[in-house]
Amino acid sequence: MITVERLLRLKNYPLDEALAEIKGIQALSKDEYHHWQERKKWELVKFHFQNNPLYRKLIGNFLPNSWNELPIVRKKDFQTNPEILLSKGLKNSELHFGSTSGSSGIPMVFARDKFSHSITWALILDRYKKVGISSTDLQARFYGIPLQKPAYYKERIKDFLMNRYRFVIFDISDYSLDRFIDKFRKTPFRYLYGYTNSQLTFARHLQTKGLTLKEICPSVSCSIVTSEQCTEEDQAFLEKVFQVPIYNEYGASEVAFLAMSDQMGIKRLSNETLFSEVIDENDHPVKDGQTGRLIFTNLFNIAMPFIRYEVGDFGAIEKDPLMVQDKLINLQGRLNDKVFLPSGKVAAGFSLYYVSKHLMGTLGYIHEYQVHQLSLSKFLFYIVMDRELDDFSKKTIQEAFDTYLEKGLEVEIRKVDFIDREKSGKLKHFISHLKQDGK
Questions:
Q1: Sheet holding 366-373: strands in order across?
Q2: Got the DSSP string for 167-229?
Q3: Which of 13-17, 115-119, 357-361, 401-405 has the lowest mean pLDDT?
Q4: Total structural domains in the chain?
């Protein structure tokens, strides 16, 4: 077994320096922290203005005096000539390279300097430690995996070395889920980590068997859900069936580790490494606690200018008067998941979570669903459920669309045994087949 800490040190990443930096920031009072953050973010802006060709291009010839006058940076801004992406003076040996999955439709390659990458991991280790997890603990990983042989075996070897076992979630038939149960019975896993919907599917299977996770695997102490939306109802269900605390992780691989819920269930922002903002449709800051578009600044990355970077999610921030870490509340779905309706109304794709919540409360036997918008007025609703699709179920689904979207929509309902995942293994609940402008 090789821990994350050891791997980073073997590759000459300055992890110890990063760990010390995290402790120093956390020791600051709230006022001291605000002074530090203000200085840090402007140092970063000035560095990229002077050294990064892309950021200089985005800003122009003169650096604004006001933070809110700085441009909002988006993923598409990085889809350009690679020669202008990286800051001058940095060698490849000083950088960490990665890529996004492309689940939002636009995959991208990104870079962080080694200290920036190290401090991201230092913060992850800190947050995990606070909920009782260490890097030596055996992880049950609910994730996708490349199916091409070389990449497949590379991931399996990596899992073995990193002390984790991967439950591949492309096949979630009853037979496969029964094998999951057998593996948990025989293996002293410490915690689960992975996609929300994959863990929900496993939890529902345990429930049909009259089992709890703690019963079949007493060593499990908690689970971390990530990458997909986890509603309060989802979390309550997982905690009921797993009989362990559920912690919600939120991140964007190109930016950083953005937030994670603590032992009180509060989702704490990664203020040690980020400056977080919420803006409206006109790019203006919103009031404390008001929902809007989330943008983040990685305070340490000097390789690429993730400054006022729009991740594509809605949410709100509630300032904490004492703690360095503010609260992330009302986190919602992707900005590009918009539902365009015949009346001219535009709803967030997150609205469909309320549809599913209504259906679960009324029908109670839905396992999974996926909605495709085929035209302004026509929707295709795939549903995995235990019972037959009778007239009552169809009427209930239509009423849910009438209530949470608008009346008069044509909803074609298809009962299926399984809903295909994306290549990453994620289950996307809403897929629009309309153009970006809703036509």
A1: 410-415, 378-385, 366-373, 430-432
A2: EE-S---HHHHHHHHHHHHHS---EEEEEHHHHHHHHHHHHHTT--HHHH-TT--EEEEESS-
A3: 357-361
A4: 2
Is 380 part of a structural domain of the chain? yes
Residues 181 and 315 in one domain: yes
Work out the average pLDDT over 201-213: 94
Domain-ending residue, one of 283, 299, 329: 329
- For residue 362, the model assigns a pLDDT of 77
Q: 67 is in which domain, residue-wise?
A: 4-329
The tokens for 226 are 């990530």
Contact (CB, 8 A) for 141 and 159: yes
Q: Say if residue 153 is in the same domain as residue 104.
A: yes
What is the overall mean pLDDT for the chain? Answer: 89
Q: How far, in Å, CA of 289 to CA of 285, rounded? A: 11
For residue 410, give the H/E element and its range: strand 410-415
Q: What are phi and psi of 225, to 5 degrees?
A: -100, 145
Asked if 320 and 328 touch (Cβ cutoff 8 Å), the reply is no
pLDDT band at 403 (very low <50, low <70, confident <90, very high): confident
170: left (phi over 0), alpha (psi -120 to 50) or beta: alpha
Q: Interhelix angle for 232-242 vs 196-208, to 10°?
A: 50
Residue 304 located in a structural domain = yes
The amino acid occupying position 381 is F
**Range name among 27-31, 291-295, 362-366, 389-393 with the lowest pLDDT average:** 362-366
Q: Per-residue pLDDT tens for 66-107?
A: 999 999 999 889 878 878 999 999 999 999 998 775 444 445
**Domain end position, chosen among 329, 364, 386:** 329
**Residue linked to tokens 């997982």:** 238
**Secondary element (H or E) of residue 152:** helix 149-161
Task: Pick the more confident residue, 231 or 115.
Answer: 115
Q: Does 49 share its domain with 119? A: yes
- Using a pLDDT cut of 70, give the percent of the chain over it: 91
Q: Are 367 and 402 in the same domain?
A: yes
Is residue 232 one of the residues assigned to a domain? yes
Domain check: are 375 and 422 in the same one? yes
